[in-house]
Design brief:
With 471 residues, the chain is mainly alpha-helical. The protein has 17 helices and ten strands. The protein has a three-stranded antiparallel β-sheet with strand order 3-4-5, with helices on one face. The chain has a three-stranded antiparallel β-sheet with strand order 6-10-9. Strands 1-2 form a two-stranded antiparallel ribbon.
Length: 471
């Protein structure tokens, strides 16, 4: 198969979207027809993933376009970073100046890239361009031939005019090469770190139809991974192109699967309860004992009274320990020995004592991190919140902890979790308790301030970070 293209229409690090649209217009053919010719797989009802080199025969495309194979290979994002195969759709974003020159960069497919590295302009999502491969170009007759364009006019080709489909100057092409090579080298260095969180952050494709302004769970994972990579690689070549938020220090905790341990362990309520007491004692002595009076006071409150404390001075470690104990006892009011297990996902269930205890400790860090972050948000937004306890056969780790298991999750899988450093959390708790102590009246028990003392003025505006017993 041979296609009219012209080497002069290729721009370095151009995306497969841009190359395929140009080839379709120049050869008066539908993109889907072209994709079927160069697809590695037989035609199916599912749309061809045109952005993946594993789905498109890039060597066949290079031969058809008479372009060097390395140039075409770089047009497919999974040849630059290891991308997840589960993306069924990718939405196209443009830099206004780049698309005016007839250019769409392969890097614009990455979620982490928010602004154009060349022009420092925000990338704007375009739904018609995103559907161009599936719906095709809009062809119409013209006096000298035909016009092929997308329905948004981002891409326009008039066969009666020049066959040039880009307006870049030699200087601009050199700039695209220089910047592209630096970003490519950074992506390769990030992949070489062999960190699953970094891999997730740098390889996630933009698959949202609407740009989200919320800092959701996915954005949080990307932010953490980018911070890890930036710290290790000493920055990103073009910092304005990405957006990151500061994060606290993280630590890794893991438990490898031992077949012998899992076989020997009796997963009965009694044996689980014995392990729970060991973990409870460890957490209490390590983190809660210095705040004993705070914990006693929170434990003495009923469900309604816990919603009258000032989040600005809350003892987050005591609230976290109380919420953790309530969570592990949740749904078992009749049997004091019955304890909930913690799982990183609904497909994974710990079977060895080491994994069970590790996940319980991680659950405590997750609750503590969530309470601390929500207290900070309440200070800023003067809002209210509470800790939710999930019901079910087991507790799920929330978004405040990153859990890593194998792709084929089963009972014999290792588990690794990333959590906020406990030393950092302890310092934040100490600061909040110190704030309350500085405002106390003489004679009030240290580390405990009752609502009548310093909380009275703020009671209508703030709620407790501790979970309600009947949540």
């Amino acid at each position: 198969m041979k296609l009219t293209y012209g080497h002069f229409n290729y721009i370095p690090f151009e995306s497969s979207w841009g190359i395929l649209l140009k080839a379709s217009a120049l050869n008066f053919t539908r993109p889907l027809q072209l994709l079927n010719e160069i697809s590695r797989f037989q035609q199916s009802s599912r749309p061809v993933q045109y952005w993946r080199g594993r789905a498109i025969d890039d060597s066949k495309l290079a031969e058809a376009l008479s372009l060097p194979y390395p140039a075409v290979r770089r047009a497919f994002i999974d040849n630059l970073v290891e991308c997840t195969p589960f993306n069924s759709v990718v939405y196209i974003r443009h830099c206004a100046k780049c698309i005016a020159l007839g250019y769409h960069s392969v890097f614009f497919l990455l979620q982490m890239i928010k602004r154009c590295p060349w022009h420092n302009l925000p990338l704007e999502l375009c739904v018609p361009c995103s559907n161009a491969m599936r719906l095709g170009l809009f062809f119409s007759p013209s006096p000298g031939g035909f016009v092929a364009k997308t329905r948004c006019d981002h891409f326009v080709f008039d066969s009666s005019g020049s066959v040039y489909l880009n307006s870049t100057t030699p200087e601009q092409r050199n700039k695209y090469v220089e910047v592209g090579l630096r970003i490519e080298a950074w992506l390769h260095a990030a992949s070489a770190m062999k960190d699953p969180v970094v891999d997730y952050a740098v390889s996630l494709l933009h698959a949202a139809k609407v740009e989200s302004t919320d800092f959701n769970e996915q954005a949080q994972f990307v932010n953490i991974g980018l911070n890890f990579a930036i710290t290790e690689l000493r920055g990103f070549p073009f910092p304005n192109a990405i957006t990151t938020r500061p994060i606290p220090p993280y630590r890794k905790i893991g438990a490898t699967y031992s077949h012998q341990e899992a076989t020997d362990f009796d997963l009965s309520a009694r044996e689980v309860y014995v392990r729970y007491r060991c973990v409870r004692r460890y957490l209490y002595k390590t983190y809660v004992k210095p705040h004993l009076e705070c914990y006693k006071y929170l434990s003495s409150l009923d469900a309604q009274s816990r919603h009258g404390l000032d989040c600005r001075c809350a003892c987050t470690v005591s609230a976290a320990f109380l919420a953790w104990r309530l969570a592990l006892h949740y749904r078992f009011p009749a049997d004091g020995r019955a304890i909930n297990l913690t799982t990183p996902s609904w497909r994974f269930r710990p079977t060895s004592p080491r994994q069970i205890m590790t996940l319980w400790i991680t659950q405590f860090y997750a609750i503590w991190t969530g309470i601390e972050s929500r207290c900070a948000n309440c200070n800023r937004d003067r809002d209210r919140f509470s800790v939710e306890l999930s019901g079910g056969d087991s507790l799920m780790l929330g978004a405040d902890v990153i859990s890593i298991t194998s792709v084929d999750v089963d009972k014999s899988s290792d588990v690794t979790c990333l959590h906020v450093c406990s030393d950092w959390l302890s310092r934040q708790s100490d600061k909040r308790c110190s704030m309350r102590l500085r405002g106390m009246r003489p004679g009030i028990t240290p580390c405990v301030t009752k609502p009548a003392a310093t909380y009275a003025a703020a009671t209508p505006q703030f709620h407790s970070p501790a979970a309600s017993a009947d949540a």
